[in-house]
């Protein structure tokens, strides 16, 4: 079931590390090749000798070990894996991963990888529930990291609640799902737009909007987690590129259209970008000066509509085109009209009135309009919206659909 799969298992500090020799055994029984990185904390709970014995391989521990770096550098360690599994994943390693720190061999390998990453958290219930840990988990999910567990139960510290590492058999099953059943979009290409566009007025000034890219990036990461090959075309944002997603950075609406067209053919397109409807008709080649002759007038020109272009009939039209509608009143009504006008199959209506905090914030409330009707989703994090939309797309794609985008019965 995991035949030929190369798993780099990173064992960090926590009492659950005592289960890792059994985890290695379960993974190897299923055909996987397992290589271990053991952190200093992990080595307090399980010995390199034990992990070396069950993997039949060297256990890597030190970033600055000259022999190890000559034989198998930290970059090579992550390149030689099909997936990196962090189990147990302590609160500390999750925080370092979210923050992009590289303080030891484990975190350096994690930062250096472009391979899928899975984490099986294990910690005290209060550490798990702490806002910092939850924010780190959200960040990691939004970058495409798969989180296994944790489970609820009695803990070594005497408390009860979520925080126990998932059992080795369940972790092995999560890997099997990941490589097989858990990847319903494997073989599909998804194109996602995200973020704002910047339309230059002159070399230093531009027209923009408040989009952060959080929603579009979360959708791209969630589609990748379901196995899709994802091209993310993003306007200027401060977010990191999601792991395992081919990200193209653009500035203007016209650049975004060119990058999207270049990325075709695609099976799925999701347009979450807040594309500027207008640009300046003639951007000044030099910085405009106050010359005392009165206020300059900005003449505007209409930008191309990327969603409408992708949704237009043609041989390269993705089978499923999903738009977003950013509205401030009559949210669903305007979204339905937009769906018809732009020719997309589904549209995610969201209220972007300032009091909702949708632009730039972490939460979103979406009404998904499909050929079958309107689904009112509850307010949830943008990561959750991304996961739900990706799953909805996967269900639709695997069930087959009619030309209106309605799901097959
Ligand atoms: O980025 P965040 O801070 O996370 O915020 C998320 C969001 C609010 C930006 C996102 O959820 C959202 O609503 N995106 C669409 C924003 C928008 O431009 O909506 P619209 O109603 O103006 O456009 C309708 C659709 O046409 C959108 O799919 C848009 O991407 C697309 N469009 C619009 C204009 C244009 N020239 N080309 C387009 O493709």
Q: Can you tag this structure with a few keywords?
A:
409 residues, Rossmann fold, 2 domains, eight-stranded mixed sheet, elongated
Secondary-structure blueprint:
Blueprint: E1 6-11, H1 20-29, E2 33-38, H2 48-55, E3 59-60, H3 66-71, H4 74-79, E4 83-89, H5 91-99, H6 105-112, E5 117-121, H7 125-129, H8 131-142, E6 146-147, E7 151-154, E8 160-164, H9 168-179, E9 189-194, E10 199-200, E11 206-207, H10 214-225, E12 229-234, E13 246-249, H11 253-263, E14 268-271, E15 278-280, E16 300-302, H12 306-311, E17 320-327, H13 331-342, E18 346-351, E19 363-364, E20 366-370, E21 373-376, E22 380-381, H14 382-399
Helix pairs in contact: 1-2, 1-9, 5-8, 10-14
The structure holds ligand PMT.
Ligand PMT binds at residues 193, 195, 211-215, 253, 271-275, 277, 303, 305-307, 323-326, 338, 350, 352, 358-360, 382.
């Amino acid at each position: 079931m995991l035949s030929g799969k190369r798993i780099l298992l990173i064992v960090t500090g926590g009492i659950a590390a005592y289960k890792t020799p059994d985890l290695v055994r379960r993974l190897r029984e299923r055909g996987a090749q397992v290589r271990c990185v053991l952190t200093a904390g992990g080595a307090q709970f399980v010995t390199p000798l034990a992990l070396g014995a069950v993997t039949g391989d060297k256990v890597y521990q030190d970033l600055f070990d000259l022999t190890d770096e000559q034989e198998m550098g930290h970059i090579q360690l992550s390149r030689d894996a099909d997936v990196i599994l962090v189990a147990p994943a302590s609160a500390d390693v999750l925080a370092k991963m979210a923050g992009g720190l590289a303080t030891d061999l484990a975190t350096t390998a994690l930062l250096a990888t472009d391979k899928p990453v899975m984490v099986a958290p294990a910690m005290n219930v209060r550490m798990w529930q702490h806002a910092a840990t939850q924010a780190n988990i959200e960040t990691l999910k939004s970058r495409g990291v798969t989180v296994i567990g944790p489970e609820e139960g009695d803990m070594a510290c005497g408390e009860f609640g979520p925080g126990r590492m998932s059992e080795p058999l369940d972790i092995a099953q999560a890997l099997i799902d990941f490589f097989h059943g858990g990847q319903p979009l494997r073989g599909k290409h998804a194109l996602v737009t995200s973020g704002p566009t910047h339309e230059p007025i002159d070399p230093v000034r531009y027209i923009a909007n408040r989009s952060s890219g959080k929603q579009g990036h979360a959708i791209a990461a969630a589609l990748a987690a379901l196995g899709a090959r994802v091209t993310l075309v993003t306007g200027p944002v401060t977010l990191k590129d999601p792991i395992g997603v081919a990200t193209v950075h653009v500035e203007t609406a016209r650049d975004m259209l060119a990058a999207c067209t270049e990325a075709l053919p695609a099976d799925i397109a999701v347009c979450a970008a807040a594309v500027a409807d207008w640009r300046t008709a003639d951007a000044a080649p030099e910085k405009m000066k106050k010359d005392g002759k009165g206020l300059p007038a900005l003449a505007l020109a209409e930008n191309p509509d990327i969603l409408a272009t992708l949704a237009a009939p043609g041989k390269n039209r993705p089978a499923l085109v999903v738009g977003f509608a950013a509205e401030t009143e009559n949210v669903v009504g305007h979204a339905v009209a937009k769906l018809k006008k732009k020719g997309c199959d589904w549209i995610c209506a969201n209220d972007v009135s300032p009091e909702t905090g949708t632009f730039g914030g972490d939460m979103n409330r979406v009404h998904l309009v499909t050929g079958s009707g309107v689904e009112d989703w509850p307010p949830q994090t943008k990561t959750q919206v991304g996961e739900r939309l990706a799953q909805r797309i996967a269900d639709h794609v695997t069930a087959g659909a009619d030309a209106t985008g309605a799901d097959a019965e």
